[in-house]
């Protein structure tokens, strides 16, 4: 099931006149600053972010999960929902799969994605939980996976990652993201040095099995599920990993995986400098790895990250970081949250494009802290919604995608078709 382009066009009709007025007014305002609105609109329309298959169902916390109506019951229904998100927002043609949650016949996955105008972004392996019933993974990951003290468990985790790469290769993916839950809850529980060595050794085996044109992303996270030490805890560890693994290995920055108040944009800047920025898992948080909608808590932080990306210019071109959303939706309709999040990510990008970089550099170099800060904030303070709406409209999407989604009645229709919700996976990483 999908939402027809004719329906989207019809929904746009009643908004078009007001939208046109707003877009033209913004265009005039920007031209007084020497900015061509159509160039910014074109750049925004060409910016895409992948959605996570696991984000289409309700997430949950360690206390409970509250399923919503019409949750997808498997990967093909998840792809239907991803198709709706992209049909309305036109920002999310890529889908990131999670193995084994999304395991299916590769040819069928590919055919379904083609039908919906989607493709597959980075693959995700899963060795942070056990897989009862999977004959390839009989051993438990309770005490670790790629860093486990038992070589048999490490071998099983390596084999699972290689299988994930093979599935990805068959469906046109070009990267794998590895996040492990390995770590310790108590000082003394594991040897901090040896566990990292074992992790590196296992990762080398995965890298050796990568196709020539593939990349591997190491995703760090400070704590949870381990609460005393995590094997891949921070960007320093991730960077050491990427360096040791060689040219196919890069660091993935999940916005929620840092210590509180860490300067994430500075980490982004350093990784660009090192040529090791692999990509992002976008989300937002107030306290920890909250996995809330991107830009919903601290849109300025999201803007500052994009300010680094835009400011890096050509240094970023060769890196081509993967932009992905990684969220858990507990109280909203996941389709609405993902549409909104993709919009917020594009908003931060558009605002960063509006920063007068020449003026910024001048103020930085002449020590004018006030005007440097003001120059940056001028981009952030600009209401770029008409640009986002125009980028969607030109691509056949909705001027107001959440309103169009609600008008479509899609959720009620799938609720009737998907009575027994057994959604798997909960936006955990
Ligand atoms: Mn993540």
Structural features, described:
There is one protein chain. This protein is of the alpha/beta class and 429 residues long. The chain has one domain: Divalent-metal-dependent TIM barrel enzymes (TIM Barrel, Alpha-Beta Barrel). It is built from 16 helices and 11 strands. The strands form 3 sheets. Strands 4-5-7-9-10-11 form a 6-stranded parallel beta sheet. A 3-stranded parallel beta sheet has the order 1-2-3, covered by helices on one side. A two-stranded antiparallel ribbon has the order 6-8. Strand 2, helix 4 and strand 3 form a beta-alpha-beta unit. The longest helix has 28 residues. It is globular and about 65 Å long. The protein starts with a helix and ends in a 12-residue tail after the last helix. The mean pLDDT is 96. Manganese (II) ion binds next to loops.
Bound molecules: manganese (II) ion
Strand order of the largest sheet: 4-5-7-9-10-11
Number of strands: 11
Q: So how many helices?
A: 16
Taken in chain order, the helices and strands follow as: HHEHEHEEHEEHEEHEHEHHEHHHHHH
* Broad shape: globular
Instruction: Output the radius of gyration.
Output: 22 Å
Classify the beta-strand content into a percent band: 5-15%
The CATH architecture can be given as Alpha-Beta Barrel
Instruction: Compute the number of structural domains.
Output: 1
- Main sheet record: 6 strands, parallel
Helical amount among residues, as a percent range?
A: 40-55%
Provide the CATH superfamily: Divalent-metal-dependent TIM barrel enzymes
- CATH domain topology: TIM Barrel
What are the low-pLDDT stretches, counting only 5+ consecutive residues below 50? none
Give the distance, in angstroms, between the N- and C-terminal Cα atoms. 28 Å
Q: How does the helix and strand content classify structurally?
A: alpha/beta
């Amino acid at each position: 099931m999908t939402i027809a382009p004719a329906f989207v066009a019809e929904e746009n009709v009643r908004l078009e006149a007001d939208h046109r007025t707003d877009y033209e007014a913004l265009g005039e305002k920007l031209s007084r600053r020497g900015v061509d609105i159509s160039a910014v609109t074109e750049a925004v329309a060409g910016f895409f972010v992948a959605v996570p298959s696991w984000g289409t169902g309700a997430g949950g916390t360690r206390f409970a999960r509250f399923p919503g109506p019409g949750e997808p019951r498997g990967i093909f229904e998840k792809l239907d929902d991803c198709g709706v998100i992209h049909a309305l927002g036109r920002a999310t043609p890529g889908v990131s799969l999670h193995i084994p949650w999304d395991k299916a016949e590769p040819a069928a996955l590919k055919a379904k994605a083609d039908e919906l105008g989607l493709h597959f972004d980075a693959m995700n392996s899963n060795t942070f939980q056990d897989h009862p019933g999977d004959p390839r993974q009989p051993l438990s990951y309770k005490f670790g996976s790629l860093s486990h003290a038992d070589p048999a468990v490490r071998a099983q985790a390596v084999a699972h990652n290689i299988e994930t790469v093979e599935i990805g290769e068959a469906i046109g993916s070009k990267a794998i993201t590895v996040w492990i839950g390995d770590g310790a809850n108590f000082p003394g529980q594991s040897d901090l040095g040896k566990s990292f060595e074992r992790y590196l050794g296992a990762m080398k085996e995965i890298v050796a099995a990568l196709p020539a044109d593939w990349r591997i992303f190491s995703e760090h996270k400070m704590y949870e599920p381990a609460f005393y030490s995590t094997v891949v805890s921070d960007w320093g560890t991730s960077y050491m990993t990427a360096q040791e693994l060689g040219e196919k290995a890069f660091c993935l920055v999940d916005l929620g995986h840092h210590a509180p108040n860490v300067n994430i944009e500075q980490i982004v800047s350093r990784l660009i400098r090192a040529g090791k920025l692999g990509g992002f898992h976008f989300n937002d948080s107030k306290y920890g790895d909250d996995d809330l909608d991107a830009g919903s808590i601290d849109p300025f932080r999201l803007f500052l990250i994009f300010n680094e990306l835009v400011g890096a210019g050509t240094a970023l071109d060769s890196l081509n970081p993967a932009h992905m959303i990684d969220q858990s939706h507990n109280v909203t309709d996941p389709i609405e949250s993902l549409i909104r999040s993709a919009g917020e990510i594009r908003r931060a990008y558009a605002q960063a494009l509006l920063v007068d970089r020449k003026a910024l550099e001048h103020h930085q170099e002449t020590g004018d802290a006030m005007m440097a800060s003001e120059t940056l904030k001028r981009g952030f303070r600009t209401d770029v919604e008409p640009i986002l709406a125009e980028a969607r409209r030109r691509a056949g999407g909705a001027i107001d995608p959440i309103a169009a989604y609600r008008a479509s009645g899609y959720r009620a229709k799938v609720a009737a078709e998907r009575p027994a919700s057994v959604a798997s996976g909960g936006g955990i990483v």
